[in-house]
Each structure stands twice: as structure tokens, then as C-alpha cells.
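Handout, page 2. Input:
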Amino acid sequence: MKDMDTIPAIMAEIGQRAKAAAAELAFAPSPAKSEALNAAADAMWARRAEILEANAKDMDFGRDKGLSDAMLDRLLLTEERIKSMVEGVRAVAAQDDPVGEVIEDWDQPTGLHIRRVRTPLGVIGVIYESRPNVTADAGALCLKSGNAVILRGGSESFHSAGVIHDCLQEGLRAAGLPEDAIQRIPTRDRAAVSELLKMTDTVDVIVPRGGKGLVGLVQQEARVPVFAHLEGIVHIFVDKDAAPEKALRVILNAKTRRTGICGAAECLLIHRDAVSTIGQGVIRALIDAGVEVRADATLKAIPGTTEATEADWGREFLDKIIAARVVDDVDGAIAHIRQYGSQHTDCILTENDDTAARFFQRLDSAILMRNASTQFADGGEFGMGAEIGIATGKLHARGPVGARQLTSFKYLVEGDGTVRS
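Output:
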């Protein structure tokens, strides 16, 4: 990319090209979009050695930058992770095309027949941190839903994202679709992000995927509408009626499987009557697994814990750290989550249907779970093939954002010489 003075002009050009591509994609045949995605998946797998080589450069950059082990894990690609990325793109290709789907239709007494049908949003700007697989996920989902996309990955994943983006464009060429449908901002310069957030003439929505700092900056500066994807301050409440073995299995998986993803558990709430029967054993198991447990006044008596501070409640650690406290009952857990949660994902462990129903009814997180690991908070695990992220806002899209969530709708109205009296 040229010097910084040219960034506004370059971003304007990227926006215009994306807008032109979006107009063409809006009516692109479904088989062509599927062909492009499958060809892109083929290219990613064929070029996996090249992707791994690029990722090694990114890992070196991340280490030099001082990223935590959990953040480096988010950045890391392995052959197995590339395989999962490829499978996600193929899964999106195999889905029904949401564009043109009739959501509902009806006849009016006036003689009008009205249909509400899905239509692409247009041009989507996706800003994300660290995880290079988001390049594939976002590109695939936007293409499937008929949207052009402008990708801006984190500085850490610059090289990996570049090769993955090349594969996506290879797929577009194979299917005869415009390469400008999936563009990537080819610089680490933050000035490009500032420009993207102001491009109201060419960009229809911004999707930020990252930590609180990134999302807050986007929400503060954006003039383009934003789908908020806030941090995952994920809570698990252990009810007095939880099954001990089930609770232990779920909590260990929710915290330790991958600590650097947004579905990782960050706070453990334990019913006062479950401390001795379940809580102590769970906390000891977490400590044995290498997790630092920051405990409240009651739980800090358990050997190996450290004392929690006020700053530990409502914190996304993205590391082998979890906060833990005792609550009196389910209402105490609900009150804590309302105060400190991010409305991302929260879970209850209980065998009591009434208690679970109360938890589900009185909390308004995008995802609520019962007796299941919060690591399932993922579009792929929801059957969406992939996701751009977990939307925590309440307008338009909420929870895992897949292809269907990246559409709007329009009304198609038909008459037969019908006039209004």
C-alpha cells in the first residue's frame, strides 16, 4: 500500500469497487456462489503449507508483541485447524441460499398480494483481531448471503489472512464472480480502519469482532451502522440441584478446552448449598488443571485459590483464570450476571426444571445454556457452518451471525390494475 496520505483515496476506491460487486452479487445464481466457496476451500487445503508458513511469521510477530499464551492460541493455525476452516467453508456452501427466500406472504382485501423476501445487506465491513480463520468465515458467509465484504484483520494475523484471502479470490475467479466481492485492506495502518468507519456512501454495516477495546472504538467512531459483538464475559451458575459429575465435566471443558475464545467460562457462581457438595471439588479440579481461581471471601479458604478483587467480576480473562463466588440462590446468580455480564453467553447447571426455566426467563443474554459447555457458543456448533461472531446487541442480528443473519428483507407487492380508493 502507498504512504498514509493516500489511505483515504485507496479506501474510497475499495468501497466503490465493493459497492459495484454487491450490486452484481445480489442476483448471483446460487450454484455460482457454492462453486466459488468450494473452489476456495479446495485452494485453502491445497495451499495449507503456504498458510502455515505465513502463520509462523504471524506467531513470531505476536510473540515479539508480547501476546499472552491464550492470544497466541487464537492466532495459531495448525493443519487440523485449517481442515476445520475448510470444512466450515464447505458447510456454508452446502447451505440453502437465504437470498430470495420468502419469509412470509399474504393477500390484502384490496387485492394486493404481498411477499416479504430476504435480500442482501449490501457491503459489510468486518474488523477483527488475531484469529485468521475469521477471514475465511466472514468471506464465506458474506458471499453466501450475497454481500460484498471488506475485511480488516488484526495486525497479528496479517500474513495468514493474506493467503486465506487469496484463496477466497481464487474461488471467486473460478466461478466467474467479481473478485471485488471479497476485499482485504492490505495494511496494518489504523488510519484505514478510521476511514472504513466513515464510508457511509459505500458501506452498509460494520461488524467488529474482538475485545472490548476494539468494539468500543468502533461504536464510538463509526458513522456506519454497527452489529455489536462485545466480549464474552461468560458465567456458569452451579445450582444446588446440579449433578456433581456432570457439573465437573462441563465446567472443566468450558474453562480449559480453549481459554482464548469468547465462549470460554470466565466466572463461576456457586449456590451456597452446593459449595461443599460440588463447588469445592470443582475448584480443586480447576486448580489441578492449571487454572488460577480468584475466589470470593467464602471460597478463598480453599487451598490454592487467590483472593478476588472487585475488578475480577465482569472481566474477560481469555486465559487460564476464572473468578468464583458464592450466591444465595438462582436469583443471586441472575442479579450478578445482570450487573457484570456482557449478554453474550451464560449457563446454568441444574437438574431442576423450574430453576432452569427461571434462569432462562429472567436473563436476556444472546445465548443461554443448561447443562452444556459454553464452548458450544459458536455458529459452527449451531449448524450455521461458520459465523462472523456472536452479536450481543438487540437490533437485527443476535447470537451467532451466519449467512441468514446477514440479510435484510424487502416487500414485493403485486396487483392487477389495483388502485386505492
